[in-house]
Specification:
The chain is mainly α. The protein has one domain. The protein has three helices and no strands. It has helices at 2-27, 31-51, 60-79. The mean pLDDT is 82.
């Protein structure tokens, strides 16, 4: 029990530092950097589909469900009202 709590604290601190670092890096990006990340992600997904063709065997609505579920958190952040405290 103590070991699991200790591991959680270590991993939590490490993840917190990583998240802070990632947030600082993202603030430096311009619009075209985000577009390049999207293109790279799309190319990587195509590579995975090429390497594992069974992935393409899913019905079309499964891809729609995945897309909707993946888009909910960014949409919530985007639509959140800014309270002016940041």
């Amino acid at each position: 029990m103590l070991l699991s709590v200790l591991m959680y604290k270590i991993i939590g601190i490490t993840m917190c530092k990583f998240c802070n670092w990632a947030d600082d890096c993202i603030k430096k990006f311009r619009w075209f950097h985000i577009s390049l990340i999207k293109i790279a992600t799309f190319a990587f997904a195509l590579m995975i589909a090429k390497l594992f063709p069974a992935i393409l065997g899913l019905d079309w609505y499964m891809y729609l469900v995945i897309a909707i579920l993946a888009s909910v958190p960014p949409m919530l952040v985007m639509m959140k009202k800014d309270d002016g405290n940041s």
